[in-house]
Design brief:
CATH class: Alpha Beta
Number of domains: 1
Radius of gyration: 19 Å
Strand order of the largest sheet: 1-2-3-4-5-6-7-8
GO molecular function: hydrolase activity
Helix content: 40-55%
Function: Catalyzes the hydrolytic deamination of adenine to hypoxanthine. Plays an important role in the purine salvage pathway and in nitrogen catabolism.
Protein name: Adenine deaminase
Structural class: alpha/beta
Bound molecules: adenine, zinc ion
Number of helices: 17
Number of strands: 8
Strand content: 5-15%
CATH architecture: Alpha-Beta Barrel
Order of helices and strands: HEHHHHEHHEHEHEHEHEHHEHHHH
EC number: 3.5.4.2
InterPro entries: A_deaminase_dom (IPR001365), ADE (IPR028892), Ado/ade_deaminase (IPR006330), Metal_Hydrolase (IPR032466)
CATH topology: TIM Barrel
C-alpha cells in the first residue's frame, strides 16, 4: 500500500465498538495464565494455539474461544487481559472503546461476577488515567443459554450497574433468534441499560429487524446480512442505525469468502452508519489498524471514507454529545494535513 495511505490508517484516531475482551486473549497470555493458575490446556505452545485457529464458521470458533477463557480465574487475570488490550489500543491510536464481556462464560465455572467486572474495570480506569483512552463496558448474554440464565446474570449485574452502560447478545446466532430474549431485554431497559445485539452475522436479515423492534437495540453488531432485505436497508439508512462491522472476523469465519467480497464499503456508500471493529482480535489475526488496513487493501476506499468509519463510530458511541465533539475534533485535526 502507498506509504501515505499506511500513515493515514496507522495515525487515524479510532473508536472501537465491538470487542469481546475474552477474544483479546493472546496465546502468550493464555499460556502464562494457565501456568499461573495451574490449568491444563490442550496445546503445548503458543504457536500450536495459533495454528489451531482455522475456523469453518462461527460455531467452530466459539468452541475454541470458550475453552480459551478457562484460564481466566482471578481478578488480576481479568485486569491483565484488559490492560494488554488497552496497550494494543494505544498502539493503534484507539481513543475510545466499548468493551463486551460474557459473564456467563465465567460464572458457569464458579467465578464470581464481581471478580470479572472488577478486574476489567480497574484496567479501564488505569487506561483512562495513564493512556488517555476512554471506555465503557457492555455485558452480553450468551444466546445459546436460556433466558432464565440471562435473567440471573442481569440480577447479578445490578449491584455493578454504575460500571455497565449496556447489555448485548452474542454467541451462536443460528437457532437462537432475538425473540428468545425479549423479556430480559425489556427488564434490562427498565433498569436503565442501553441495548445492542449481534444480528445478521450468520443469521438472516429478520434477526436484525427483530433485534431493533423486540430488543430495542441502539446498535446492531455485525448486521452485514441486512442487504438481503431492501426495505430494512432503507430503514437503517433513514434511522442512522449503527452497524458494528468486523471485517477480519467476517473473513475468518467465512461470512465472506475473501475481503474483496465484503460489503462494508458498499454499505457506507449507501449511507449506512457502518463502523470498523476487531471483534476477537487474538483469534482473527488483527486489531483495529489491521482491520482498517485489510479493508483498504482489498476494497476501493478513499481516505475520506476511512475517516468516515471513525466519525460514524463516534456518532454511534455511548458517550455524551460534548465528549463526542471532542473526539470529532481530534479526528478532523489529524486528517487535516492528509486532505490538503
Ligand atoms: N462472541 C465472540 N465473538 C462473537 C461473534 N463474532 N459472534 C457471536 N458471538 C461472539
Ligand atoms: Zn462479536
Amino acid at each position: 500500500m502507498n506509504p501515505h495511505r499506511t500513515a493515514f490508517i496507522q495515525g487515524l484516531p479510532k473508536v472501537e465498538l465491538h470487542l469481546h475482551i475474552e477474544g483479546s486473549l493472546e496465546p502468550d497470555l493464555m499460556f502464562e495464565l494457565a501456568r499461573r493458575n495451574n490449568i491444563k490446556i490442550p496445546f503445548s505452545s503458543p504457536e500450536e494455539v495459533k495454528a489451531a485457529y482455522q475456523f469453518e464458521g462461527l460455531q467452530s470458533f466459539l468452541d475454541i474461544y470458550y475453552q480459551g477463557a478457562n484460564v481466566l480465574i482471578n481478578e488480576q487475570d481479568f485486569f491483565d487481559l484488559t490492560w494488554a488490550y488497552l496497550l494494543r489500543c494505544q498502539k493503534d491510536n484507539v481513543i475510545h472503546t466499548e468493551i463486551f464481556f460474557d459473564p456467563q462464560t465465567h460464572t458457569a465455572r464458579g467465578i464470581a461476577f464481581e471478580t470479572v467486572i472488577n478486574g476489567i474495570d480497574r484496567a479501564m480506569q488505569k487506561g483512562r488515567e495513564e493512556l488517555g483512552i476512554s471506555s465503557q463496558i457492555i455485558m452480553c448474554f450468551l444466546r445459546h443459554l436460556d433466558q432464565e440464565s440471562a435473567f440471573n446474570t442481569l440480577k447479578q449485574a445490578l449491584p455493578f450497574k454504575a460500571k455497565i452502560i449496556g447489555v448485548g447478545l452474542d454467541s451462536s446466532e443460528q437457532g437462537h433468534p432475538p425473540e428468545k430474549f425479549k423479556e430480559v431485554f425489556e427488564a434490562a431497559i427498565g433498569h436503565g441499560f442501553l441495548t445492542v445485539a449481534h444480528a445478521g452475522e450468520e443469521g438472516p436479515a429478520a434477526n436484525i429487524h427483530n433485534a431493533l423492534t423486540l430488543l430495542g437495540v441502539s446498535r446492531v453488531d455485525h448486521g452485514v446480512r441486512c442487504v438481503e432485505d431492501a426495505e430494512l436497508v432503507k430503514q437503517l439508512i433513514e434511522d442512522r442505525t449503527p452497524l458494528t462491522v468486523c471485517p477480519l472476523s467476517n473473513t475468518k469465519l467465512k461470512v465472506f469468502e475473501q475481503m474483496s467480497d465484503h460489503n462494508i464499503v458498499d454499505l457506507l456508500r449507501q449511507g449506512l452508519c457502518v463502523t470498523i471493529n476487531s471483534d476477537d482480535p487474538a483469534y482473527f489475526g488483527g486489531y483495529m489498524t489491521d482491520n482498517f488496513m485489510a479493508v483498504a487493501d482489498a476494497l476501493p476506499v478513499s481516505l475520506e471514507e476511512l475517516q468516515a468509519f471513525t466519525l460514524n463510530a463516534i456518532e454511534a458511541s455511548f458517550i455524551h454529545e460534548q465528549e463526542k465533539q471532542k473526539l470529532v475534533d481530534k479526528v478532523t485535526h489529524f486528517s487535516h494535513e492528509f486532505f490538503v
